[in-house]
Amino acid sequence: MIGVTRTFSQTAWHPEEQDPRQFQMIKLAETSIELEVMIYRQKLADRVPLLIICSIDLPVPPSTQFCDAMWSAGYQIIFVRRPGFGNLPGLPDALLAKAQVKNGSAIASESALFSLLIQTLDLKNVVLLGLGTSNSICYRLLQLSSEIQFCIYSNPLFHPAIWDVIKPAWLKRMIRQTLLSRSGLQIAVRGLKAVLRRDPIWFYRQFAQKSPGDQAYIEAHKADFREAGLMLQNMAPDTFYYDLQNALIEDTEWDPEITRDSRAVILAGEETTAKWKRSIIAEADRLGLPIVFAKAGDLFVPYVSQGAFLETLKAHIPIAAQI
Amino acid sequence: MTFEEFENPETPDPNGNQDVNMRDFLDAVESAILALTDSPTPARLRLKQELDQAKNILKSQLDH
Known about the structure:
- Chain A is α/β, with parallel strands linked by helices and 323 residues long.
- Chain A is 48% helix and 15% strand.
- Chain A has 17 helices and 9 strands.
- A 9-stranded mixed sheet of chain A has the order 1-2-3-5-4-6-7-8-9, sandwiched between helices.
- In chain A, helix 14 (274-287) links the parallel strand 8 (264-269) and strand 9 (291-294).
- The two termini of chain A are 23 Å apart.
- The longest helix of chain B is centred in the C-terminal third of the chain and has 22 residues, at 42-63.
- Chain B is built from 3 helices and no strands.
- Chain B is mainly α and 64 residues long.
- The relative contact order of chain B is 0.13.
- The A-B interface holds A 28, 30-33, 84, 87-97, 100, 103-109, 111-113, 115-116, 140, 143-144, 186, 189-190, 193-194, 197, 233-239, 253, 255, 257-258 and B 1, 3, 6-7, 13, 15-22, 24-25, 27-29, 31-32, 35-36, 41-44, 46-47, 50-51, 53-54, 57-58, 61.
């Protein structure tokens, strides 16, 4: 059952009128909290829900071509834009204070919202896809919701070598600054917004410079990345702080006792540095999680390497993938 | 928030973290805590601990 929904394509999403990726405001059951959700082709269909929780760097849904490919394979993309990432307020200020971000209150609360979304939409046998900074949320959501049958952590940032792979160097310095102090955060966010305002495509090309596959995806979907740039410009500094803190400071909750038996895999791209690859393999080993390396892509690896993504789904969810 | 608004902190942030829904956030957190209590595992108990902390801070803000 979908709760109260309202399309708001005029204000929130600017691709062509007939784009099947229009967003809806979904009101969570028995609350006044709304989330921005893109249900591909608008209505829930008799397909396996492929729920995507977005990363801070790309708060827009995957391309129509990707959504169509998943549709043909039996999956319906449901993309959630996280609170504060677009047109709705972020988490309450009380949860975004330094102590609450560090002790996990904020991220656990956000996971609770997505669990409530699964209930509100009455989703069953969900396949969950985490991207970049959202993987720690997905890790918690997997424990919260019994309706998730499988989870793919793509391009996870949970290992210790994270700072080595953020490119270019100026962006790494800027992101580091967001975590050091309140004034550092404000300066860094102001700088980032200035760059995005000047040329969002240039920013994304720089950010994705390690991967020809990511670069090609940006070139093929420039309108989406312009939209993403606008979303990032609209983000409050506290939301930046919260998300980057969770993603870049080691999340000690990732525990092999939990992950070893979880219904999940890691998906990463080959188009990255050798050091990162070694590090992510070591972390996957520690956690006892299977890891799949796709030939192309890095930040946007599931979207870029659709074949590898679908093969991973087929290997773990054979019945659904044969629809 | 536009650049100008960012520069001028007195301007209300239209996309900021308003606390108007704090009661609903608390309800969402409490409902998740309840779900975790049903079949506790070490992992779920640790997640519950994070949610308990969220519940406490939200409650204290609401009581304030």
